[in-house]
Design a protein that fits this description.
Helix content is 43%, strand content 14%. It is α+β, with helices and mostly antiparallel strands. It has a five-stranded mixed beta sheet, sandwiched between helices. Strands 1-2 form a two-stranded antiparallel ribbon. Strand 4 and strand 5 form a beta hairpin.
Length: 284
Amino acid sequence: MIATITDPPSGTGRIRRTSSLPQHISPSAAKSYLGCSLKFYFERVACIRKNTPVALHLGKAVHAALQVFHIARWRGGDDSPDAIAAAYEKSFTDLEAEEGPVNFDDEGREKARLDGLRVVAAYLDSPEAMKEKPRAVEVLLKEHIPGLSVPLTGAMDLVEGNFTPVDFKSAATKPDPSNAAFDHEIQLVSYQLLMEIATGQVPPSLDLVFLVKTKTPQIIRVTSPPADLHRKRRVIALLETAVQGIAAHRYHPQPGMQCSWCQYKNECMAWLPAQTQPERRATG
């Protein structure tokens, strides 16, 4: 039995199990596996719960507020700053109840809450805030991609009227535009693959909007051209590497700079290969 490679349902962190190949693969799951297969195992297979990092909690609350804003633009609802601020406050509180404790220090909760409010306000006041009706908000696609042994799934934050997919990223520092698109290549190209099959349209660009939590928040769009055949083949190969690795139960430490802030250091130090292998029934 192996884990289905999909994003954990909100609030649980758990994933379903199935036999043979996964039912589907998402770009975030593939990136997680390729970044450190053992961390992927602890999070999505063993389902070891940890307190939520402050940055992740804040990013989710900001993302939820922007989703409310874009849906209001899409459906003609209340997109006023007060309504969006209220949506942020509700999400900030609800996430604590739904997903468990957050790693706030003594005064960290109030600071984080205010930081998020400032970021949301900065986005609403920026040129990047949607002025027209979007084509879709939080659209979930699932398609069979040639060269990939399981369906690909992806949830796009926003699709603009000209079919440009936009993904929002919270960040503590200003991104380097030359590296930002490459860092998120699996996600961006996956979105293009999904959109081309679902709509027959080639997006004019693949865009990231960074919500930078500096003292004065900054909203920065990074635009990259649509993927050519080489980039598509490369990303499909990366996705397939993750699929086959999980199907084969290949979970092992991948030491690097990221270990210094990983929440699973103790579990990693205790790891032995047999601990991440499926139970095998005796025969005979």
